[in-house]
């Protein structure tokens, strides 16, 4: 606390990212990183941009990247917004499109950054409890609202809401922006992007951090009607016009030029997810049905925090949330088959030695 | 205008960056880029980080970079804040440290982003006119205030305020944060950084875009008392925790490891600036005394906008501001000697053919 801080600063409860421990030989299954590196074409494109041209500003509008993304999703260029990570995109979305006189609605269990943004931007919100089985029921979102946001697949549950249900929600709320945060969508079966042209109140956000293996490059984007995108551009150009550096622009473009690699990588991760789910169930874990690159699981008898700590002692880091309703669960990112074998082996051992 | 926009969005007047025209053989003297590329050590460090490790998140705190910067300036690690460009750093500064009940003070002629931030964050401000000779007189800043910010050297004038005067301002305003925006300081003679340990109300911001030739990498930083830095960290961690990507962190660290290169480059730019100033004066331009990598000049008889347009026709882009008090001036970035020779040649020709 300092007298030099603006009023808002002391009231903030900043987001706590998953730890990034600098330990050798660690099996890191705590921040949903992709176990496979980015497409070799990405590395090549970055290498080709890594030269004296870094002295120059990037294109502040990143037009070439926007065009690439627009073509990929069969949208117009003015339906794409890009930013330095989907966290930054979401920040602009909260300020630019979700701050209204009525409260914003989102699930009680979802990406834990949403209430942080609300505090930062002074946005009133209501958290709608997920049902007991952790499903989002759209009938719970009937209240008058200034917007609705949810992650789909949801985090940290991994569970997906059908796009048919998303469409009903869009139809029921023609005067609110519905934001579908699709950080994990490439590991799922369906995306709301196909509704973007049809509904002017839909905004879909995505990231290159997970499925495209580029958490280190910080690129996210939003897709929506040109009017929504213009609102975001106005906010961004009042904040920092050159959001993406030249290397991030080059790398992101190359990532979209290699969809075969994306599909291959996601298929591998999903196959490992299914193997891991079966193995966890065999160890008497309840595993929520995941459409993401992680699983959310609780053991019938073993305490989650203790399991988390025991795994950590063995050099395996997963994510544990000390929060209501989910404190019995571990969120486990899907690594390589070898990493998941090591996890299952460690859990088998921990459970056996504590039974 | 859209009914989906938050109230603030329609009131925004976003910042207009200098154009980034994609024309071959253009002589680009409009955005104060360094004509020399970054240190070869920067390119090497980025190349070494451009690999499969991009699948992982960067260190959200960029601790190694902070330590490097802290050592360079002989400060403690907790006196350094880093961000995705000094524009982003400034955005967090405005929200976190400059929004108070009393108005923020800054010059009428300075970095034109400041009023944009005030609008975005709803900060009351008073613009204090520079004197007729474009000097900042600290006696004009006696009013009760919620903070003071100015660029030093100032933009677009290039003129520097002595650090002795900055110190008096700090002493006169013990209850306000004084932000010295030193984007161009490496081309000047002195910096306020040496006062950072002595004054808890001083924050200095700098960038790697100009003197370190890394406009394309988007890295800026702030130096100040640990309490001020903590305020900025709280805002940043409520906005996007991983502000800098892995390649930017690696490149920025390498840039600070090669100060010989920095000094060499700045010396070359400053020498070209002096040559250019003399040549412009010979053409009957008034040139404000610059401590930056640009000059601000007006011709005794020729209209600035016409000169700007005539230069553009010849493939030379400089910056013209259609704003009160400075609409007779051109802001000309310092390029290579060859580029400046071409500029002088073009101006000679334009002036001769219009006299």
Concise structural overview:
2 copies of one chain form a homodimer. The first copy, chain A, has 355 residues and is of the alpha/beta class.
Question: How would you characterize the overall build of this protein?
Answer:
- 2 copies of one chain form a homodimer.
- The radius of gyration of chain A is 21 Å and the shape is globular.
- Helix content of chain A is 36%, strand content 14%.
- The first copy, chain A, is built from 11 helices and 13 strands.
- The first copy, chain A, folds into 2 domains: 18-37 and 260-353, Alpha-Beta Complex (Aspartate Aminotransferase, domain 1), CATH 3.90.1150.10; 49-257, 3-Layer(aba) Sandwich (Aspartate Aminotransferase, domain 2).
- The first copy, chain A, has helices at 7-11, 40-49, 63-72, 86-97, 114-121, 163-172, 226-236, 246-256, 259-282, 304-313, 337-353; strands at 27-28, 80-83, 104-107, 125-128, 148-151, 178-181, 202-207, 220-224, 285-287, 294-299, 316-317, 319-320, 330-333.
- By secondary structure, chain A is α/β, with parallel strands linked by helices.
- In chain A, the strands form 4 sheets. A 5-stranded mixed β-sheet of chain A has the order 2-8-7-6-5, with helices on both faces.
- The first copy, chain A, starts with 6 loop residues before the first helix and ends with a helix.
- In chain A, helix 3 (63-72) packs parallel to helix 8.
- In chain A, helix 5 links the parallel strand 3 (104-107) and strand 4 (125-128).
- Chains A and B meet through helix 1, helix 2, helix 4, helix 5 and helix 7 of A and helix 1, helix 2, helix 4, helix 5 and helix 7 of B.
